[in-house]
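Lecture notes, unit on protein representations.

Consider one protein chain, 481 amino acids long.
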Amino acid sequence: MMLTFVIFGLLLSGSLAWYTDNKTFLGLKFQAKWMALVSVIAFAFIFSFSVYLSPLSFLTLQTITQVPWINSLNINYALALDHLSITLIILAFFLAVICILVSWDEIQEKAGFYYFNLLATFVGIIGVFSAVDMFLFFFFWEVMLLPMTAIIAIWGHEKRYFAAIKFFIFTQVSSLLMLVAIIAMAYIYQQQLGDLSFSYQDWLVLELNDDIAQYLMLGFFIAFAVKLPSVPLHSWLPDAHTQAPTAGSVLLAGVLLKTGAYGLIRFVIELFPQASENFAPIAVTLGVVSILYGAKMAFAQSDFKRLVAYSSISHMGFVMLALFSFNEIAYQGAIVTMVAHGLSSAALFSLAGMIYQRIHSRNLSDMGGFWQSAPRMGGFGLAFAAAAFGLPGLANFVGEFLSLVGAFKVFPFMVILAAFGLIGSAIYGMVLFQKTFQGSSSKIVRDLSYRELIISSSLLILLVILGLYPNFVLQYFRGVI
């Protein structure tokens, strides 16, 4: 019931933020941003303490809630948690706070509706990470899509409509493929055991013909590869990232891409283990191509946000490579990479938003020499760029190192190629920092405010903690493969 309380509480808080924004009650003027911030922090503590105090062991999926929903189709409102979903939900809560803080001064128009959409997106994300009835999972997958599209289309930049429609079409078409696969799995379960079931745990016992399993696996794989994203299903991402408001970019890179990786782990690899192993050489090839292509394209960009967007394609390629290596060390590397990329990409997009607020441009040619007038911003910019290209001592290094070491035992040649992506990330990371903060001063910009210091410091502290003490996360993911 705790998780249901959190989900509906966030949705109610978003609705109240929308309704009460700039209205006066009992002599107090309500603002949507304060209501959104307080509610997210409160529900984050409720969730964290409930999990910490729970007598359940989350080494395997533990059902938290299961009540009938659509009886005629045997569809239930079923939620479950394990260490994977808990880790990603906590990451989502932390980045939700970051999203609200970076939106604090940026969003002025229709603020109530904006924070409603922001919280509704997080409701969908939490549902995706916890739903174990596949119809309910699909429902939350769609809930996640609609408000995110609205955030891009209403509060985005100059080409926001094009980016929002492209994001919607890519995600919706791939989602329909997944829906077909979900219905087919429920039908097969009925044929084999006599009852219709959409339960993920029930599907684990199905015996599937190799050919049928391969096609069904692809239905899920394509949907999650689009969200990851993986080449060649990636083209929505640079436009969506570039045109979204700052919080939209943080949300997309920090959390939404992780829903794709989560889906690959939970539903592709675990539901179709043999089909996934057969498909592994293709998936690994796509991962390596994504690593190299993303690094190459990032280097070629002159738009700050577009550069970071392409770097996300490169970093998430490591996750694809690691997962389909079917190696425990690589799997642990994938988990750390997911968390580390969530933090480092959120940091870089937040930095991009801070700079845009000052000079109203994302073009690197309009930047340069900012260190002279904003040394604190420059220091954080250097640290975040270092995190992105995998400097030892920061979280990304641990994740990508473990991914490559584990995958090398299975795909040595592909790992050698993927390692060139690390070199590419160092190049585009330093180019980004140099063009932004080094050289002759083009403009005088104000340094970080206290709010921006809180955003930057919290992200950097977590990157350092996870980089120096990865066991903070890894202790929960031993012996899983």
